[in-house]
Write a structure and sequence with these properties.
This protein is α/β, with parallel strands linked by helices. The chain contains twelve helices and eight strands. Helices cover 53% and strands 13% of the residues.
């Protein structure tokens, strides 16, 4: 009982320093500047504390049970309060009103309708819980050089594209929630983004066609749950090969929070050679330049060209198994 009075008095003493709107106060208070020191309440709390300590040594068993019961209630109420606070916060976030978007239908993707300059960065999103790649693009992109376009693919069944789509079919609640998260991320970084929904049967074709029409310098995608980063890059590369000529070259970056990013240049581009490959090329050039009839006219590019033609000839002559085996060994070495 004494411990209960002591804890109540201690709680009132703590409230006196947190609140200053009490109508009734224990007497004997001294004000120093803006701070009011409750001497009377402090002395009372101190006396109750001494009595509680004396009670602890004189009635040990009853006091220990009382203190244990009080502590158990304290921890129960504290844990319950944290759980309820998290639940209320989660419910508040779920009920948070989503952004309002005005839809502007266009028959095809064009940079002038999106206000995106050629060389923009195109970011493909689909899951608002997996947008670390968008966060990195927002952090690193200089808007003076590159605009940012965020796209999502509204995947359709075969034949659905032949009919006109209603707004709720093209831009459902999921797309609205997805772009609401995109807007929040962009506002935190203070960078504007262009938003784009592309209806398509094949999402890989939609991404590369959009990048080609916008003349994007880079297509950025997050990692897929259903395939590895390398397989995702391969599927996007095959989609790029299906584009009509002339195909717009751009780079592909696949960002994963737990894995190294994958960079791929789509289209003809100089290969990035390993240092040992450059050494091997130089050694071949030295040996071949000593051959009669070659001499100073031989350049490194001539050696590469001859090697490529020999590789192509081996593939077309039926010796493809050995070529593939050599490539597998190279991949294992890499």
């Amino acid at each position: 009982m004494v411990w209960s009075f002591f804890l109540k008095s201690l709680g009132v003493l703590a409230l006196r320093f947190q609140r200053h709107d009490q109508e009734y106060k224990f007497p004997f208070n001294i004000r120093i500047g803006r701070v009011e020191i409750p001497i009377g309440l402090g002395v009372t709390t101190l006396i109750l504390g001494f009595v509680a300590i004396a009670n602890l040594f004189s009635k040990e068993i009853a006091t220990l049970y009382g203190v244990g019961f009080t502590l158990s209630l304290f921890f129960t109420f504290t844990i319950s309060d944290k759980i309820n606070t998290r639940r209320r916060l989660r419910e508040h976030l779920e009920k948070k009103p989503l952004e309002e978007f005005n839809l502007e239908h266009q028959p095809e993707v064009a940079s002038n309708s999106l206000h995106a300059r050629p060389g923009c960065v195109l970011v493909a999103v689909r899951d608002y819980r997996r947008m670390s790649h968008l966060q990195k693009v927002l952090e690193k992109t200089n808007l003076r050089r590159n605009d940012i376009v965020v796209m999502t693919v509204r995947q359709l069944s075969t034949g659905a594209a032949e009919y006109g789509l209603r707004d709720d079919q093209l831009f459902s609640d999921y797309e609205r929630e997805l772009f609401s998260h995109v807007v929040v991320l962009a506002e935190k970084e203070g960078k504007p983004v262009e938003l784009l929904v592309v209806p398509a049967v094949d999402p890989f074709d939609a991404m590369v066609q959009t990048a080609a029409k916008l003349k994007a310098s880079r297509l950025v995608s997050g990692v897929s749950e259903r395939m590895t980063s390398e397989e995702l890059a391969r599927q996007i590369g095959l989609a790029w090969e299906r584009l009509e000529e002339p195909r717009h070259p751009f780079s592909l970056e696949i960002i994963s929070p737990n894995r190294a990013s994958v960079y791929v240049n789509l289209g003809p581009h100089p290969p990035r050679l390993w240092p040992e490959d450059l050494d091997r090329l130089h050694d071949l050039w030295l040996k071949l330049s000593e051959q009669e009839g070659v001499g100073s006219r031989l350049h490194h590019r001539d050696v590469v060209g001859a090697a490529l033609r020999r590789l192509q000839r081996d593939l077309e002559s039926g010796d493809s198994k050995q070529v593939v085996e050599d490539l597998k060994q190279e991949l294992r070495r890499s």
